[in-house]
Amino acid sequence: MVTINRTFLKNSLNFDNKKYYMPHTICILTGPTASGKSEIAVKIAEKTGAAIVSADSMLIYRGMDIGTEKPSREVRNKIPHYLIDIRDPWEEYSVGNYIKDFEDVTNNLYAQEKPFIVVGGTALYLKAIMEGLFNGPPANWEYRNHLKKVVREQGAGSLYAMLEAIDPKTANRLHTNDQRRIIRALEVFKQTGIAISSYQTQFGNKNPNYNCIIAAIAHDRKELYKRIETRVDSMFSRGLIDEVQTLMLNPLGLSKQASQALGYKEVIDYLEGNYSLQEVIDAIKQGTRRFAKRQMTWFRSFSDVYWITADAFDDKDAFAENILDYFAQKKPFIEKTLSY
Q1: In terms of pTM, does the model score above 0.85?
Q2: Where in the chain is the domain with CATH 1.10.20.140?
Q3: N or C, which end of the chain is more exposed by having fewer CB within 10 Å?
Q4: Residues of the chain with CATH 3.40.50.300
């Protein structure tokens, strides 16, 4: 085990008494939901004096605490956390907003020479950090709702046919059932008259602004699903339903993004009489398992990610130390591909 230099999370590293300058090095800890990212990140922060910068699209919202497993106020008072509780739940927030906020926060931390670690599982945020961002037009919800109506009336294949007619290059790389990306491509063309494939974008290439060192936590599938079941049960015992009721009582309501958050969407349906209590619990567990699988698919598409299997460590302190070793030396100490 190497001796950890507490400054390694900055943009300069010291190995063998030699100093290597690495502009805007970003250490990222990710993994599927319920994998234990936050707990391990806190241990890393305690060992290094680092701050934590969130890469979670739901932690941005004030008042959405239980359903997002937001770090407690006690933890955040002890360890600086950024990009948490920065928007009210009725406000929309895009990946473009996130990248702007991320740049502001991390540039400020670099200026202070404050080490930090990026922690979260929102794959689109992480991809934008690593590969840059396509700055397309904002969401057009009226047009999106129209396209969803077309799907209901004519079937999913109708949107794919529309995309083939205007942007065959994008259609060729998308699955016919990838409704979210097809709708986005149609939306971009609707608002700009330009095919999304024609835009100059950095996606697919390394973002020149950052040198990203990425570690991802993995669990055996059965163990991860067990952790998900325990987490969901805990959310309900801690008052998830009351939290959602409080959010819904606000006359400003919830943004589309917030109202579609995993766990919140299902509880809203429950409060509207569409689920029994057990049905909503089961629906959230199933939805969370599916979400974890989608996250794993995303993370496997990232380049230069080293997987750390949590099941190999009985001691969380040792697990955190091993991640620190990897960040400090950028050497994989465990590589294991799990089947999901």
Answers
A1: no
A2: 141-198
A3: N
A4: 12-134+204-220+296-329
Structural contact between residues 311 and 224, judged by C-beta atoms closer than 8 angstroms: no
- CA 155, 157, 159, 162 dihedral sign is negative
Judge: domain 141-198, CATH 1.20.140.150: no
Amino acid at 318: A
User: What are the backbone dihedrals phi and psi of residue 76, each rounded to the nearest 5 degrees, phi first?
Assistant: -70, -25
Nearest-CA neighbor of 309 among 223, 229, 203, 191? 223
By C-alpha distance, which of 255, 214, 270 is closest to 57?
255
Q: Which of 308, 334, 301, 330 is nearest to 25 (CA)?
A: 330
Q: How far apart are CA 250 and CA 232, in angstroms?
A: 25
Decide the pairing of beta strands 51-54 and 81-82: parallel
Assigned CATH topology for domain 12-134+204-220+296-329:
Rossmann fold (3.40.50)
Cα separation, 199 vs 137, whole angstroms: 12
Residue 158 identity: S
Distance CA 77, CA 108 (A): 19
DSSP state of 196: G
Sequence letter at residue 309 = T
Q: Is the dihedral of CA 117, 120, 124, 125 positive or negative?
A: negative
Encode pLDDT of 254-285 as tens digits.
998 999 999 999 999 999 999 999 999 999 99
Instruction: Name, in order, each residue with C-beta under 8 angstroms of 82's C-beta and a sequence gap of 6 or more.
Output: 51, 52, 53, 54, 105, 109, 116
Instruction: Give tens-digit pLDDT for 50-71.
Output: 999 999 999 999 999 999 999 9
Strands 211-218 and 305-309: parallel
Is 30 in contact with 37 (CB distance < 8 Å)? yes
Task: Estimate to the nearest angstrom the gap between the alpha carbon of 51 and the chain centroid.
Answer: 18
> 């494939």: which residue's tokens?
197
